[in-house]
Specification:
- Strands 1-2-3 form a 3-stranded mixed beta sheet.
- It is built from 20 helices and 3 strands.
- The chain has helices at about 25-55, 55-65, 70-100, 100-110, 115-125, 130-140, 140-155, 165-175, 175-190, 195-215, 230-235, 235-265, 270-280, 280-290, 290-300, 300-325, 330-365, 370-410, 415-435, 445-455; strands spanning about 10, 15, 220.
- It has about 450 residues and is mostly helical.
- It has one domain (about 10-460): MFS general substrate transporter like domains (Growth Hormone, Chain: A, Up-down Bundle).
- The relative contact order is 0.14.
- Strand 1 and strand 2 (about 15) form a beta hairpin.
C-alpha cells in the first residue's frame, strides 16, 4: 500500500486544502498537526470576539440606569431575545461552512460583527426607546452563530483521538469572550467611562479577527458542498438527544452569563460596579475548564463525565435555592461560580460525545478505516451546529424563567427550582440512552447487535 502524501495540496488561491486525512498518523505528524493548530488558533480568536459581541448586552444593561427607563423585566426580555437570535443563527452558520468553506466563512462572520457593534454605539444613550434597544440588541445575536461554524470547521481538522481536547479548546477560547468583555466593562465602569467606550474598543478587534482569519486560515475541500450532511444529521435521533443534553450544559452557561449580573442587582441590591466585580468570575472559570472537560472525556468517556457532571450541577442549584432563601450573598455567589464551572466542564464532555457517537454508528454499519472516519466527521460536524443551536435555546429559557420568577414572586428561587428539576431529567436521559446496560436476556441476532451498539456508546 502506497503511503499518502504528507503534504496537503492547496489550490484555488492557496487557502484550499485538497488532501486532508488527520487519522493517518504519518500525515498528521508531518504536516497535519501544524496546519490544524494554526487554524484552531485563529478560529478561537474569531469565535472569542463573536461571543463577546453576542454577550454585549449582558454588560450594557448594567450601564443602563434609571435614566434609560427600563424595568428589570424589560432587561431580561432584551437579553432573552439576544440569546434567541444567537441560537437561531447557529443553524444557517452550520450550513455556511459547507457552502463557502471554513476559512471563507470565518472571514465573513467576523466582519459581520461590525453591524451590531456599530449599531449599538449609535443608539446607546438615554431617551432611546425600548423598541429600538430591542431591535439593535437582536443584531448582536449573530455573534452567537460564530460558535456553530467554528466548531463544524475545527471538527474536520482533528483526528478522533484529539477531538475532545481540540473542540474543548476551541469552544473554551470562544466562551472566554464572555468574561473578557465583562472584565473590560468592569475597568471602564471603574474608570468612570460609559458604554460607548466599551463598544469603541471592540470595533477594531472585530476588524482584526476578520483580517487574521483571511491571512492564516484554510478551507478543506472535502467539507465544501456537503450540505446534505446537515439533513442527514437532523434525521438521526442522537442529534436531538445530544441537543437536549447540551441545553443543560451550554444553555446554562450562556443563560447564567446573561442573567448573573441582573440577579445580583435585583435580588441582592448590588450596584452595577459591585455586580461587575463578581459576574466575570463564573464565566471565566467555566470557559477555562471546558478543555478539561474534553480531555477527561477523551480519557474516561464523555457519557460518564456528563452523567456525574449533572449530579454536581443539581447539587449546586440546590445550594442556590438555600442561599436565596437565606439571602446569603457569599453562599449564593460561591454556588453560582461552582455551577458555572460545572456547566463549562459539561460543555467539553458533551461535545466530545458527538464525534464518538457517530464513529460508533459508522462501526455498527460495518464501515472501517477511513470510510468510518469520514462518515463520523461528516455527520458529527453537521450535528454540532444543530446541537449548538438547540443548546443555546437553554439560555433563552433561563432568562425567561428568571423574568417570570421575579414578576411572580420577586425572587429567582422559583427559577432555580425549575433548573434543578431539569438537571435531574438530563441525568436520567444520559444514563438511560448512553450508559444503561441492557438486561441479560436471550436475544436475537438483531437485538444482540443493537445491544452491542448501545454498549459502545459508554465509551464516547
Amino acid at each position: 500500500m502506497t503511503a499518502p502524501s504528507t503534504a496537503p495540496a492547496p489550490s484555488r488561491g492557496g487557502h484550499w486544502i485538497e488532501h486532508w486525512d488527520p487519522e493517518d498518523e504519518t500525515f498528521w505528524n508531518a504536516t497535519g498537526e501544524k496546519i490544524a493548530r494554526r487554524n484552531l488558533l485563529f478560529s478561537v480568536l474569531s469565535e472569542h470576539i463573536g461571543f463577546s459581541v453576542w454577550t454585549l448586552w449582558s454588560v450594557l444593561v448594567l450601564f443602563m440606569g434609571p435614566e434609560y427607563g427600563l424595568t428589570p423585566a424589560d432587561k431580561f426580555l432584551l437579553t432573552s431575545m439576544v440569546t434567541l437570535v444567537g441560537a437561531a443563527a447557529r443553524i444557517p452558520y452550520t450550513f455556511a461552512v459547507a457552502l463557502f468553506g471554513g476559512r471563507n466563512w470565518t472571514v465573513v462572520s467576523a466582519a459581520l460583527l461590525l453591524v451590531p457593534t456599530v449599531a449599538a454605539y449609535a443608539v446607546m444613550k438615554p431617551g432611546t426607546s425600548f423598541g429600538t434597544f430591542l431591535w439593535v440588541g437582536l443584531l448582536a445575536g449573530i455573534g452567537g452563530g460564530n460558535f456553530a461554524s467554528s466548531m463544524t470547521n475545527i471538527n474536520a481538522f482533528f483526528p478522533l483521538r484529539k477531538k475532545g481536547w481540540a473542540l474543548g479548546l476551541n469552544a473554551g477560547g470562544g466562551n472566554i469572550g464572555v468574561p473578557v468583555i465583562q472584565l473590560v466593562a468592569l475597568a471602564i465602569i471603574g474608570a468612570g467611562g460609559g458604554p460607548r467606550l466599551l463598544l469603541g474598543i471592540y470595533i477594531p478587534l472585530v476588524l482584526a479577527a476578520a483580517v487574521l482569519a483571511a491571512l492564516f486560515m484554510d478551507n478543506i475541500a472535502s467539507v465544501k458542498n456537503d450540505t446534505g450532511a446537515a439533513r442527514d444529521a437532523a434525521k438521526d435521533v442522537h442529534t436531538w438527544i445530544m441537543s437536549f443534553l447540551y441545553i443543560g450544559t451550554f444553555g446554562s452557561f450562556i443563560g447564567y452569563s446573561f442573567a448573573f449580573g441582573q440577579v445580583l442587582t435585583i435580588q441582592f441590591g448590588r450596584t452595577p460596579l459591585q455586580a461587575a466585580y463578581l459576574t466575570f468570575i463564573g464565566p471565566l472559570l467555566g470557559s477555562l475548564i471546558r478543555p478539561v472537560g474534553g480531555r477527561l472525556a477523551d480519557r474516561y468517556g464523555g457519557a460518564r463525565i456528563t452523567l456525574w457532571n449533572y449530579v454536581g450541577m443539581a447539587a449546586a442549584t440546590a445550594v442556590l435555592v438555600v442561599a436565596g432563601l437565606q439571602k446569603s450573598l457569599p453562599l449564593f455567589v460561591s454556588a453560582f461560580v461552582v455551577l458555572f464551572v460545572l456547566s463549562g466542564l459539561g460543555n467539553g464532555s458533551t461535545y466530545k460525545m458527538i464525534p464518538g457517537i457517530f464513529q460508533a454508528k459508522a462501526l455498527a454499519k460495518g464501515l472501517t478505516g477511513e470510510d468510518a472516519a469520514s462518515y463520523g466527521r461528516r455527520l458529527s460536524g453537521a450535528a454540532m451546529g444543530l446541537i449548538g443551536a438547540v443548546g443555546a435555546l437553554g439560555g433563552v429559557g433561563i432568562n425567561l424563567a428568571f423574568r417570570q420568577s421575579y414578576l411572580s414572586w420577586g425572587t429567582g428561587t422559583g427559577a432555580f427550582v425549575a433548573f434543578l428539576a431539569f438537571y435531574g431529567l438530563c441525568f436520567a436521559v444520559t444514563w438511560a440512552v448512553y450508559l444503561r446496560r441492557p438486561a441479560a436476556t436471550p436475544q436475537t441476532t438483531a437485538a444482540a447487535s443493537e445491544a452491542k451498539s448501545q454498549l459502545s456508546y459508554a465509551e464516547v
